[in-house]
Amino acid sequence: MPFLSVAQETNEKGLDDKINEAFTPIANWFEAVILHDFPFTASLFGNGIPTIIILLVGGALFFTIYFGFVNIRHFSTAINIVRGKFDSLDKKKNNNTDGEVTHFQALATAVSGTVGNGNIAGVAMAIAIGGPGATFWMILCGLIGMSTKFVECTLGVKYRDIGEDGTVYGGPMYYMTKGLREIGFERLGKFLAVIFAFLCIGASFGGGNAAQSNQAAMQLVNSFGMTGGSARTIIGLIMMIFVGIIIIGGIKRIASVTEKIVPFMALMYIIACLYIILTNITFVDDAFGMIFSQAFSPNAGLGGFLGVLITGFRRAAFSNEAGAGSASIAHSAVKTNYPASEGLVALLEPFIDTVVICTLTALVIIIFNGDSTVFDYGGVGGVVMIDGTPAEGASITAAAFSKYIAFSGPFLTLAVVLFAVSTMISWSYYGLQSWIYVFGKSKAADLTYKILFLLFIVIGAAGDMSSVWGFSDAMILGLVFPNMVGLFFLYPKVKDELGRYSNAILSLVKK
Q1: 389: alpha, beta or left, given left = phi > 0 and alpha = psi -120 to 50?
Q2: Number of domains in the chain
Q3: What DSSP letter does each residue of 299-338 carry, written as one string?
Q4: Is the pLDDT of residue 96 over 70?
Q5: What is d(CA 438, CA 273) in angstroms, rounded to the nearest whole number?
Q6: 8 A C-beta contact, residue 422 and residue 117
């Protein structure tokens, strides 16, 4: 009898189906509300453009230009900060700098929240729907998103709260409340902060949790040939216990775990991708040719072009979260006297996540598919047919890996699970900080949130990919609305902080 096949043999609905049926209508409703099209774009361009994409891209372009291409000019500075070259600037005379974690730990925690199954399953979904051209727009979104990430994480440190016990409370909720009050918009700041906090709680349940457990469960089921109506639910329960043990310890334990897991798993995944790419080096120029030509394909018409663009931006935004403000919650906990120092560190995230890892995944899939020889692009909902079998998300990437690496099945399964777990534990911290902001700082509030968060691991594992990822997209991209409004009010403060830190670095170099 196949493993866990009882429900299947009796033709009864298993727990997976029951949970999915209850969750799907809720997910579809949230997706329709958050990802609505900007008025008249469908009639003008033949393809509706979500309002959220216009706000996200427009804001990122503005910040990139206003701060003089900070994403390029200060890239090396960011690396030096992570290396500890300017650590002496962060030390007070009594050696009691505010904060809980180092620059590297903050970066590792935030990267673990962004580098996840969006890089494996999300990229595959983008290419399956929008073709190779979607990769170009993902890369562009990652590059300009570096500037947005710099702005929001600088503000996160500048306006954070420090508890009596040294615990840090930070993120958009605090820079909206305190920052907008500072410039005379107290009510607006409070309103935006509360809206953000509720959406961030939802995002922690969705993109930071359910979407991750969904792909981990699907990959484990496929890898080990599990059948039956409750297989993914059982996997979800196992992951729930494991994640629960970690998140009870708070940001310090989370940081200590992520600083070990994230560099290891990211490096191993990059090496595997590079091996496939280098052993197929003669096809790389063709792959890049398809990425660029199909990004601007005139054959698809304006509507088709916008569809590819939107697909690329949507997947990149989900993956690197630039503009969502979530990462500033983790960066707020850093030990520093200069908010801009952590803003510069944060701009490395979209580069690592989207420009490097997402691009490597895309190249592997495009080389694997060649000239649409394995599957046809444009799969509805990201589902394509490979050897007569439906494939979606991580299973597309798994098929590409298995062609070139004999042991890729266990390796990619491990990568998917580790990516999922690291993302979940980071997002549990983001959601908890938002929960505390709304419901107060108490052990009861802390425990209530963590129980709900852990339940969504099971819901995500059992759910259908399209509904889970639709809900996750809606929740994470929904954060952009309140966050970007706050950033547009407060970006001059960031310029002041960047100038202060730049002067401090110049003084240090002159010594």
Answers
A1: beta
A2: 1
A3: GGHHHHHHHHHHHHHHHHHHHH-TTT-THHHHHTTB--S-
A4: no
A5: 42
A6: no
- What does the block give as tokens for 156? 């996160």
Tell me phi and psi for residue 247, to 5 degrees: -70, -15
Q: pLDDT band for position 178 (50/70/90)?
A: very high
Evaluate whether 340 touches 498 at the Cβ level (below 8 Å): yes
> Given this model, what pLDDT does residue 187 score?
94
pLDDT tens for 456-472 read 898 888 877 667 777 77
Three-class HEC string of 124-179: HHHHHHHCCHHHHHHHHHHHHHHHHHHHHHHHHHHCCEECCCCCEECCHHHHHHHH
Residue with tokens 């290396």: 83
| Cα–Cα distance for residue pair 435/116, rounded to 1 Å | 23
Q: What CATH number does the domain containing 233 carry?
A: 1.20.1740.10
Please state the separation of Cα 443 from the chain's center in Å: 28
Secondary structure (3-state) at 100: coil
Contact 375, 385 (CB under 8 A): yes
Report how far residue 330's alpha carbon sits from residue 433's, in angstroms, rounded to the nearest whole number.
10
Query: Which of these, 210, 196, 206, lies nearest to 480 by C-alpha position?
Result: 196
Residue 430 lies in a domain: yes
Q: How far, CA to CA in Å, does 399 sit from each of 218, 275, 391?
A: 14, 16, 9
Is residue 3 domain-resident? Answer: no
The DSSP annotation for 412-450 comes to: HHHHHHHHHHHHHHHHHHHHHHHHHHHH-S-HHHHHHHH
d(CA 278, CA 46): 40
pLDDT tens-digit map of 41-50 = 777 666 677 7
Contact criterion met (CB below 8 Å) for 172 and 156: yes
Assigned domain for 1 exists = no
Domain boundaries, position 407:
13-510
What single-letter amino acid sits at 21? E
Residue 153 in domain: yes
Rg (CA), the chain: 22
